Amino acid sequence: MTVKKNRPRDESVEIVLSELRGKDLVILTTHKNADGDGCGSEVALADWLRSQGTETFIINPTPFPENFKFLLPDISWVVEADSSSARELCDGADLVVVLDTGENPRIGKVEPLVRGLKTVIVDHHPIGGNPIEGVSLRDTTASSTGELVYDLIEGAGGPWSKTSDLGVYVAVVSDTGSFRYGNTTPHSLRIAAELVHRGVDPGKIYRRLFGDYHKTRLELLQSSLSTLDLDETYKIAWMVVSEKAYESLGATPEDLEGFVDYPRFIDGIQVGLLFRKVSRNAIKVSLRSNGAVNVNPVARKFGGGGHNQASGALVTGSMERVKKDVIEGVREAVEISGILK
Question: Looking at the predicted structure, is the pLDDT value of residue 133 above 70?
């Protein structure tokens, strides 16, 4: 089975491949609180680069999530950004590849480590206000960064391994919500079919990603659902993650995966929001749209960003003030969408 090439990307793929080839040491990184797309893309590309004889390490601004460590054939591929090893590796690197983000603030503490290094960006998000400069493969029509990494490895003629197959599959399935979201493309489905044909087990991966929750997550979800509120007129619903429950349960950011989807599951709701206090005066806001409302401008208004249907921001202020301001911003986006007419 052969996946058809995505012709509009061919030129960018070749340019990026020319930058990747022949390097001795490459650093890979992604955004803070890496998700399945970021982690899967990193592992797949790291595996391919290592097959080319390039020493490759993953250095992220926040720890590599526990629930994605099954992707790693060797945990030594990951180096903590705070370590002396990270500084030494970055000082000696030929290139840094930034995956699943193109914004300087999103790579956090890694940014000063790689400042001045030759940079490649592989991303499917719209370019924001503080973009990372470098050679890029950016395509907002891609379902995921994993789809772009597939095109890179395929464009190079492989080789493919079980590790890179698994990494790309997890990346694509994570960002498309198991192919339920509107960003699912024919190309992403063809890629998935090819990877399954080669031996990736969809049932096993689904259970690993979405069907194997521990008690902490469910107790935190129970607490969060108790805060569910909505504005039926503007078709918005939201939840708040209790700071007390989060801390007392010993929860982690991975436990919150998918929480923001619950408000938008309500019949008639178009936008779901999730609010969580992450420090004394900062609230993390996640925004998800069912398609008709573009939530990206709302996130950007508050210093964040993302996609039209999935965005986020870290907003300074009290919980009540941030909720009020963000919900008002979403109301404006709903009005602009025209769905109230």
Answer: yes
